């Protein structure tokens, strides 16, 4: 029954040479420590690649010096496209052999929308997103890469004081809706206008208060997704990481089902359009073995549901408690020790990559996500 459900959920083979992901991976944002002479972006991207991942998720925004200590300051770079094209660290990271790259993108010159998105700010936002998407389509044409342009937890952008009990105003809802529609339109227009092959660029919206949405609250999921209808939706899933084992998997499945139910169809995109953009279990509250066990539960849920991605937060920890101790959102700790959760994901990725290689030999380079999910769940239970 599970495999039959996945057969319906996953995408058909791609005609453009762009293959599916290995689904499970990690990301790097504001890493709090380094072990090499590289800047934080290049070092952690290389580490993620070395663990076998074909997915990289990073920030591309004007706060890059805060996000990635050690990066060269380049005040001459004024737009997202210029950062991606001309900053040597971004050039290195984007050129690494990741097949799927997710980017938090915030235009360097676009304004905010909390009091309504002005025509001037809408125009600047559109142009920067359009130019970045067009650049990626041209630069990586024929590469087999997929790029997703999105943002951080959008429901926190929408909720003042990060308080889910406070409903956003009509002005906030309208402003964010306009902002996301501009971003979606910019990516669609770049795809239409830019000659390319063997590369994809999509736009995604990230939600994070899905449990509130399921109770009927004012959220991106209920009030904005049906209007914007983005290419994809990322779920930063901490509010559904409840219990463990089957209980946790059931909570996640219901949340993913609910988000998916709010998306109008996009016939040009086959398969599931909702993924788990963040999940994680800080070592401050979870001993290493439990951290790995809960991660395994989320990974199983993601594969069972058919998520295109499920990304652990994160490679190096970015958070500290009030007493100055790191919270332990990590795969590699601040002593350089690879945690059990690292070995869990690295073991999965080794097996998943071997499975993908076999499917490419048998079915060609554009084997379907359906084929991968079907055999991954049947052949990789030990790795999970």
Layout of strands and helices, then pairs:
Elements: H1 2-9, E1 24-26, H2 40-50, E2 55-60, H3 64-67, H4 80-86, H5 88-95, E3 100-105, H6 119-139, E4 146-150, H7 154-158, H8 170-193, E5 200-207, H9 210-214, H10 220-223, H11 225-228, E6 232-236, H12 246-261, E7 274-279, H13 288-305, E8 310-312, H14 340-363, H15 369-379
Parallel strand pairs: 1-8, 2-3, 3-4, 4-5, 5-6, 6-7, 7-8
Helix pairs in contact: 1-15, 2-5, 4-5, 4-6, 6-8, 12-13, 13-14, 14-15
Question: Which tags fit this structure?
Answer:
single chain, 384 residues, alpha/beta, TIM Barrel, eight-stranded parallel sheet, 8 strands, 44% helix, globular
Question: Would you kindly provide a written description of the structure presented here, covering whatever features stand out?
Answer:
The protein is of the alpha/beta class and 384 residues long. The protein has a single domain, classed as Alpha-Beta Barrel (TIM Barrel), CATH 3.20.20.80. It has an 8-stranded parallel sheet. Helix 13 links the parallel strand 7 and strand 8. Helix 1 packs antiparallel against helix 15, helix 2 runs parallel beside helix 5 and helix 14 crosses helix 15. The longest helix has 24 residues. The N terminus is likely disordered.
Strands in their spatial order, largest beta sheet? 1-8-7-6-5-4-3-2
**What is the N-to-C order of secondary-structure elements (H for helix, E for strand)?**
HEHEHHHEHEHHEHHHEHEHEHH
What class do helices, strands and sheet pairing give?
alpha/beta
What's the number of helices? 15
* Helicity, as a percent range: 40-55%
Ranges where pLDDT stays below 50 over 5 or more residues in a row are 1-13
Give the CA-based shape.
globular
C-alpha Rg, in Å?
20 Å
CATH architecture, by name, is: Alpha-Beta Barrel
CATH class: Alpha Beta
Strand content: 5-15%
Query: What is the rounded distance between the termini?
Result: 20 Å
Number of self-contained structural domains: 1
Largest sheet: 8 strands, parallel
Mean pLDDT, as a whole number?
92
CATH fold naming:
TIM Barrel
């Amino acid at each position: 029954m599970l495999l039959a459900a996945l057969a319906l959920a996953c995408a058909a083979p791609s005609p453009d040479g762009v293959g599916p992901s290995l689904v499970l991976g990690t990301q790097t944002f504001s890493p709090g420590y380094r072990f090499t002479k590289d800047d934080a972006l290049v070092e952690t991207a290389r580490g993620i690649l070395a663990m076998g991942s074909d997915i990289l998720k990073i920030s591309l925004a004007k706060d890059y010096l805060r996000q990635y200590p050690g990066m060269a300051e380049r005040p001459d770079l004024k737009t997202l496209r210029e950062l991606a094209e001309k900053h040597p660290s971004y050039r290195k990271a984007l050129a690494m052999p990741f097949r799927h790259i997710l980017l938090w993108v915030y235009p360097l010159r676009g304004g905010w929308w909390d009091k309504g998105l002005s025509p001037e700010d809408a125009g600047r936002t559109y142009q920067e997103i359009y130019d970045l998407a067009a650049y990626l389509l041209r630069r990586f044409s024929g590469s087999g890469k997929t790029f997703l342009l999105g943002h951080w937890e959008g429901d926190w952008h929408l909720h003042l004081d990060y308080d889910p009990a406070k409903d956003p105003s009509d002005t906030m809802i309208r402003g964010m809706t306009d902002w996301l529609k501009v971003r979606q339109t910019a990516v669609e227009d770049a795809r239409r206008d830019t000659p390319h092959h063997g590369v994809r660029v999509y736009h995604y919206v990230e939600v994070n208060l899905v449990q509130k949405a399921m109770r009927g609250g004012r959220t991106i999921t209920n009030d904005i997704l049906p209007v914007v209808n983005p290419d994809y939706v990322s779920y930063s899933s901490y509010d559904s990481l409840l219990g463990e084992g089957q209980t946790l998997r059931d909570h996640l499945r219901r949340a993913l089902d609910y988000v998916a139910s709010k998306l109008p169809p996009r016939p040009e995109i086959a398969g599931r359009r909702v993924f788990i953009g963040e999940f994680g279990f800080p070592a401050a509250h979870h001993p290493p073995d439990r951290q790995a066990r809960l991660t395994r539960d989320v990974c199983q849920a993601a594969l069972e549901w058919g998520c295109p991605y499920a990304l652990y937060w994160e490679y190096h920890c970015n958070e500290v408690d009030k007493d100055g101790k790191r919270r332990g959102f990590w795969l590699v700790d601040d002593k350089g020790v690879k945690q059990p959760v690292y070995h869990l994901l690295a073991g999965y990725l080794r097996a998943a990559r071997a499975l993908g290689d076999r499917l490419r030999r048998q079915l060609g380079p554009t084997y379907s996500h359906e084929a991968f999910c079907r055999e991954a769940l049947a052949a990789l239970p030990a790795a999970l």
